[in-house]
Design goal:
The protein has 209 residues and is of the alpha+beta class. Helices cover 27% and strands 28% of the residues. The strands form 3 sheets. A 4-stranded antiparallel sheet has the order 2-1-8-9, with helices on one face. The protein has a 3-stranded antiparallel sheet with strand order 4-5-6, with helices on one face. Helix 2 packs antiparallel against helix 3. The chain is globular, with a radius of gyration of 17 Å. The termini are far apart.
Length: 209
């Protein structure tokens, strides 16, 4: 059975995409392992990473189109810049009820199409992951679900932890209203390397009262 790894993610506004690419380029001299450019490395906020049988890709696109159509546009408010011990640099977003519910819906609808497959990276994590993450991997094929979901936008990853490289730009510049979600082929370092399809939010006809 042929499969591939995919990332279902929120597509930020053009202004935030431009700002993220600028910050990513600035980190290259500090040892950035990738530079966001919208060709090989698309700017995104992850909702769900999954290993998917390729025969189920049309079904995933159909479901995402329906989810997006019924989802109203909503605001993502940035919190702080972060850099973890692995060198990942990102800006975190407020985990609102709307954002959590969207992730919940996406995973509930798409998880069965995974047919129990796991990404190789998650298979390797199973021996060292905390119990809560291990349960998520076993149940959903993704560790960052529910209480473990921490919405963020990754700017780059450095070869080594370098606290002085963490951006000092006002996080307010990373605020945006979500208009689209997309499905991408998943690349190294959690990147979105190739767009499969994008879906505009809130396109379902409004019901008459």
């Amino acid at each position: 059975m042929k499969s591939s790894s995919f990332n279902i993610a929120i597509v930020p506004s053009k202004i935030v995409v431009k700002q993220a690419m600028k910050l990513s380029r600035a980190l290259k001299p500090d040892g950035g392992l990738f530079v966001l450019n919208q060709r090989l490395y698309s700017v995104h906020v992850t909702l769900y990473m999954m290993e998917l049988p390729l025969r189920n890709l049309p079904g995933v696109k159909r479901i995402l189109r329906m989810i997006a159509a019924s989802q109203r546009r909503f605001k993502l408010e940035p919190l702080i810049w972060n850099q973890d011990s692995g060198g990942y640099i990102d800006v975190s977003y407020e985990k609102t009820k709307t954002l959590s519910k969207l992730q919940e819906t996406v995973i509930k609808e798409l998880n069965p199409l995974r047919e129990g497959l796991l990404r190789q990276k998650d298979i390797e994590r199973m021996n060292i992951a905390p119990r809560s993450e291990k349960r998520n991997i076993q149940k959903y094929g993704f560790r960052s679900v529910g209480a473990q979901f921490e919405p963020h936008l990754t700017i780059s990853r450095l070869r080594t932890y370098k606290p002085t490289a963490t951006p000092r730009v006002d996080t307010g510049k990373m605020s945006f209203t979500a208009h689209k979600i997309g499905i991408f082929y998943l690349g190294e370092h959690g990147t979105c390397k190739k767009l499969v399809a994008r879906f505009r939010l809130g396109t379902a006809p409004k019901r008459r009262k």
